[in-house]
Amino acid sequence: MSGAAAAEQLIEVDGVEKVFSVRRKAGRLRRVRQEVRAVDGISFRVPRGEMVGYIGPNGAGKSTTIKMLTGILVPSGGRLRIAGIDPARERTRLARRIGVVFGQRTTLWWDLPLKDSYELVRRMYRVPDSTYRANLERCVELLDLGPLLTVPVRQLSLGQRMRGDIAAALLHDPEVLYLDEPTIGLDVISKAKVREFLREVNAERGTTVLLTTHDLTDIEQLCRRVMVIDHGRLVYDGGLDGLRAAGDGERTLVVDLARELPPIDGVPGARTVRVDGPRQWLAFPASQSAAPLVAAVAARYPLVDLSVREPDIETLIAELYANGGTRWDVAEDGGKAGDAL
């Protein structure tokens, strides 16, 4: 990797581990000490300006990773660098360059109006007045915070508080924004506002975003790249299309015929899964091209219209979690390599 390319890698994670020592019951009165490997040798790079989804089941190691990236936790092994800074050694210096939002914990002052919390953030980070005013004005406009600025944080709804937390994390112009479940518990309108705001921040300011969430719609709408972690190991790192190809999901060919007919059969590699009048749904492997199926149907049936639906990402993720014997990694050339765990 050239020097210029290396400089663009804002987040560098090499073989990072985190092991916790816990005491567990081993009988009525006896306790034994046991090691729990929350993060198990993960490695990845995130270039400047990229928005990456970091997903996994509960207990997979997502929040532990975020806490190590922010300097809250010290890795048990491996190497971490954020913009060339070691988070554990230079946490104060790093704090000026990152923003963090934990969906279930607020960084705002509970009894203060929202605007007073923002003023405290300005003083803590020593944000220049002109920068502060410009950033606050933009956040207030895009996140619809104007009517809330004089309201104590404790009186805000969950969706209002979450929007307030995201604004607070961006007032000092961080280079990296860590979002841990930022849309948890939000209604549809609040989620839409948060997503649109994050898209604009990433596109206009080039803010690097690492997003952990259980709402896979967040990932589909915001991220081109997704990393999947399970049992502390990185089991997939690549694009959403690659995730669909790597899984065992199926695509669906939706066919509109000129008239109602019996279920389509005799098309190699496809099976009819639903019939509703002249419309029929044919399932086929996600890795298979739709072109031969379309040609076969068009040659034998009075075809009026058709569309191809991609496999549901939630189903693919569930299959990936369940398939613990295989790991998909992105090779240096951008391809995927499968390893037995």
Defining key terms:
341 residues, alpha/beta, Rossmann fold, four-stranded antiparallel beta sheet, 11 helices, 15 strands, 32% helix, 33% strand, globular, disordered N terminus, disordered C terminus
- Gyration radius, rounded: 24 Å
Number of domains: 2
Count of extended strands: 15
N-to-C SSE string, H for helix and E for strand: HEEEHEHEHHHEHEHEEHEEEHEHEE
Main beta sheet strand tally, sense and closure: 6 strands, mixed
Q: Structural class of the helix and strand makeup? A: alpha/beta
CATH superfamily of the largest domain: P-loop containing nucleotide triphosphate hydrolases
- The fold-level CATH name of the largest domain is Rossmann fold
Strand order of the biggest β-sheet:
5-6-7-3-8-9
Tell me the helix content: 25-40%
Summed up, the helix count is: 11
Measured distance between first and last alpha carbons? 28 Å
What is the overall pLDDT average?
84
What global shape is seen?
A: globular
Strand content: 25-35%
- Mind telling me the CATH class of the largest domain? Alpha Beta
Architecture of the largest domain in CATH? 3-Layer(aba) Sandwich
Multimeric state: single chain
Return residue spans where pLDDT drops below 50 for at least 5 consecutive residues.
1-7, 325-341
Please outline the helices and strands.
Elements: H1 3-7, E1 9-25, E2 31-47, E3 51-55, H2 62-70, E4 77-82, H3 91-95, E5 98-102, H4 114-125, H5 129-142, H6 158-170, E6 176-180, H7 188-205, E7 208-212, H8 216-222, E8 225-230, E9 233-239, H9 240-246, E10 250-257, E11 271-276, E12 279-285, H10 291-300, E13 303-309, H11 313-322, E14 326-330, E15 336-340
Parallel strand pairs: 3-7, 3-8, 5-6, 6-7
Antiparallel strand pairs: 1-2, 1-4, 8-9, 10-12, 10-13, 11-12, 14-15
